[in-house]
Write a structure and sequence with these properties.
heterotrimer; A: Rossmann fold; six-stranded antiparallel sheet; four-stranded antiparallel sheet; 41% helix; elongated; C: alpha/beta; Rossmann fold; seven-stranded mixed sheet; 10 helices; 36% helix; globular
């Protein structure tokens, strides 16, 4: 779960990291007030969950409170990658002499957290790694032995940094590691960390991601305080109404999974199963020129009710002509239970299963029972001798007429 | 005591056996999807909205005396009984 | 031969009295696996389909040879369960549990490295050496498992548990059996990546080729490509990648926790390019896999 910049900065502040003076503005007058309190030039930044704000015009500078109000009004009206800002962060403009990159994340190959530091901040760190590898230091952290500041110091020193700068950078990097550890983050990045003309350091921008799996344990202690609800999705874009309804289906009972609905603009509804299976089927439908109306996942052993409700949500989406029900060979999920749920969902939506279900391809556990049921309702079904992609092709063909 | 609201599964308990409070309790216990409950008088009652959740485990059929609980698959006409 | 498990492998199941674990125990026993015990604290003395349940692993290892353990306990208890297994000398862990926080998994994997324990998973269905043994829920009930998996000479590795079976099924239908199929897990941090299992397949004289299933996100494919190039592997590899549509949707998580496009190197397009560069054949769809395997073997 990605934090907005102003939330991320609030978390860093708790660990003692030094930040520019400022605050968030919900309306232009707020920005004027913050600028007056600061009493100097300010920077105003659109609070959205995507990168590339500067290019998109979401970052502006102002010398006076009046200019700040104008800039704030413009930013509040400007969508960035389809997202409207939740507010505008107004901060004192800093006279930056040099920029650094500090980061902590997991290394999937070493399977350990890793500290990353570079004296070429402000640009994409992947680019620095490619073009100037000598300007990046990476030091892994043990998860069994306690973290100690000297590890941060060694990382900083390995770039040839010494003197007061070494001590200041060590402090910030250690604070960043502690933030990473305290909140189950998967990424903690300060980019750039600015060295000001007076020699002090200040966080200009930062990016923190909290692991989805750990949100619950931080809900009461941190997330509530930041005003982040337990049901807030915080993915690449805000959830649509359709997606919210899909999420509610998954919560009707605890049996299995039937949800993770993502909306697309198409006419073929997909009732598809499992993580990998769903990805495979979605690709196949697109490859045959089909237009999926949604992505979803069915897994574990969902109840008939859950499969039925999911089907109903998908069928209720305007423009959905037919649905395709496809999964990989299942071993845990029961074919007959899913068949019951889908057929019931179609009937309760007022349609004929034989006409509405373009294809049903779920081989595996209890398939005999499932196929008997589908036969009774005249649904076109296939067994494991028909591949997932062939099933997808048949569905696309049917919907094309 | 046949139920017709469900689409796929029908469960019948012999009317004489349904009055047996002991059996009612046992049925409520064994069914993994809560199709049975003991009503106010301790009689075995069917929870209609759960019928279609039946996983065909036959635990209810086994728990009752022979022939007294019958599970019918409405989509095939087949009946599970003993 | 096969890798990791065979007909002599003995293992225990941690969390054996849980709903899904009871099923899995029965499926493994029916398939012929040697399940020698189970652990559920507080339930010691009971049995599950004849498998004795203990309170601690210590009690089991005192009287039995235990080669491996399948961990099915809920996520908040997984780290502790894994530590217990590792510190009691068990050398092969299959962690089935989903949603284990990444930091805790890093701790498990760090201790496992110190003690020389091999970890498969988390968030996986385990593995199977067809005709010999299966360790985990892979393939489901024994009858279904036997339908999809047959003994043979193809090694399978997959980030998706369900797709492991789908791929094995398509290989079986085309007359290719499997030496060992491993569901490696869908999380960002897993005990054994493709590249880390390759040396085992490489050394197995009954494996002739490898099929992998992969997804966008994570550094595992790049690691495999590098391994193949550096080690001049004797094994032809056929890969299938699902989730190509995700390239246009950065930041959105689909399927598994590890399946998310965060940077350029995570995209399907980039990964496929690297796999091809390393001489790995890429299948456009599952049904092409057997043909590509045949082509590479001739």
């Amino acid at each position: 779960m990605r934090f907005y910049e102003y939330e991320a900065k609030a978390l860093l502040r708790k660990q003692g990291v030094r930040l520019p003076d400022g605050g968030t503005a919900e309306k232009p007058a707020d920005a004027g007030k913050i600028a007056r309190d600061i009493g100097g030039a300010v920077v105003l930044k659109s609070q959205v969950l995507s990168g590339g704000r500067m290019k998109a015009g979401g970052v502006k500078f102002a010398d006076t409170p009046a200019e700040a109000e104008t800039a704030c009004a413009e930013i509040l009206k400007l969508p960035i990658k389809d997202q409207m800002p939740v507010n505008v962060l107004v901060e004192a403009k800093a006279a930056v002499a040099k920029e650094y990159y500090l980061g902590v994340t997991f290394d999937g190959v070493a399977k350990l957290p890793v500290m990353i530091i570079s004296d070429m901040g402000g640009i994409d760190i992947e680019e620095v790694a490619e073009t100037h590898p000598e300007h990046i230091a990476k030091v892994h952290l043990s998860t069994l032995h306690p973290f100690s500041d000297y590890q941060a110091k060694e990382a900083v020193a390995s770039l040839g940094i010494t003197g007061g700068e070494l001590n200041q950078l060590t402090r910030v990097l250690a604070q960043l590691v502690r933030t990473f550890l305290a909140y189950n983050l998967t990424l903690a990045e300060i980019n750039p960390l600015g060295k000001l003309e007076d020699g002090s350091f200040v966080v200009l921008d930062c990016h923190l991601d909290m692991e989805e799996e750990a949100r619950e344990r931080h809900q009461k202690s941190v997330l509530d305080e930041l005003g982040i609800g337990a049901d807030e999705m915080r993915q690449g874009r805000p959830p649509t109404e359709f997606e919210k309804r899909g999420a509610r289906v998954d919560n009707v009972d605890h049996r299995g999974v039937a949800g993770r609905v993502v909306e697309f603009e198409g006419n073929l509804g997909l009732v598809i199963g499992a993580g990998g299976g769903s990805l495979t089927i979605f690709d196949a439908v697109q490859r045959f020129g089909g237009k999926p109306a949604n992505y979803c996942e069915i897994g574990g052993n969902p109840s008939v009710l859950k499969a039925c409700e999911l089907t109903k949500v998908i069928l209720s989406k305007p423009g959905v002509d037919k649905i395709a029900v496809i999964m990989n060979v299942v071993s845990n999920t029961r074919v007959d239970i899913v068949a019951r749920g889908v057929v019931k969902g179609v009937v309760e939506s007022g349609f004929d299963p034989a006409e509405k279900i373009a294809v049903f391809r779920i081989p595996g556990a209890w398939e005999g029972e499932g196929f008997k049921l589908l036969e009774k309702y005249g649904v076109h079904y296939c067994d494991r001798t028909v591949s997932m992609s062939e099933a997808a092709r048949r569905a696309v063909e049917k919907i094309a007429g | 005591m046949a139920e017709t609201k469900a689409m796929f599964i029908q469960v019948e308990v012999d009317p004489a056996a349904a009055g047996d409070a002991e059996l009612a309790k046992k049925l409520a216990e064994v069914c993994p999807v809560s199709i049975f409950e003991a009503d106010g008088e301790g009689k075995a009652a069917i929870v209609e909205e759960n019928l279609d959740e039946c996983v065909l485990c036959e635990l209810c059929v086994e728990a009752a005396p022979p022939g007294q609980v019958r599970v019918t698959k409405l989509y095939s006409g087949e009946t599970l009984s003993r | 031969m096969s890798i990791l498990i065979d007909e002599n492998t003995t293992f225990i199941i941690q969390g054996i009295t849980g709903r899904e674990a009871v099923n899995m125990t029965r499926e493994c026993l029916d398939y012929g696996s040697k399940v020698v015990g189970g652990v559920t604290p507080g339930r010691g003395g009971r049995d599950v389909y004849g498998v004795p349940v203990y309170d601690t692993i210590k009690e089991i290892v005192a009287k039995e040879r235990v080669d491996g353990s399948v961990i099915t306990v809920p996520a908040p208890f997984t780290r502790d369960a894994a530590f217990e297994a590792i510190e009691n000398g068990i050398k092969l862990l299959v962690i089935v549990t989903e949603r284990v926080p990444r930091y805790e998994m890093a701790q498990v994997l760090e201790l496992a490295r110190l003690r020389g324990t091999r970890v498969i998973g988390p968030n996986c269905l385990g593995m199977i050496s067809p005709g010999k043994s299966k360790m985990g829920g892979i393939g489901g009930p024994a009858a279904n498992t036997k339908q999809a998996y047959k003994p043979g000479r193809i090694g399978v590795m997959s980030r998706s548990g369900g797709m492991t079976t789908e791929i094995a099924n398509s290989l079986t239908a085309a007359g290719f059996g499997q030496s060992t199929a491993v569901s490696i897990g869908g999380d960002p941090l897993i005990g054994s990546t493709y590249a880390e299992l390759m040396p085992l397949f490489e050394a197995d004289d009954e494996t002739d080729a490898i099929v992998i299933y992969t997804e966008p996100g994570g550094p595992m494919d790049a690691q495999l490509s590098l391994w193949v190039k550096e080690n001049k592997s004797r094994l032809p590899i056929v890969a299938f990648m699902a989730g190509k549509f995700m390239d246009k949707m950065p930041g959105m998580r689909f399927g598994h926790a590890g399946t998310i496009v965060e940077g350029k190197a995570d995209t399907a397009a980039e990964k496929l390019e690297r796999l091809k560069e390393a001489g790995i054949s890429v299948a456009e769809e599952i049904s092409q896999i057997p043909d590509l395997v045949r082509e590479r073997l001739s």
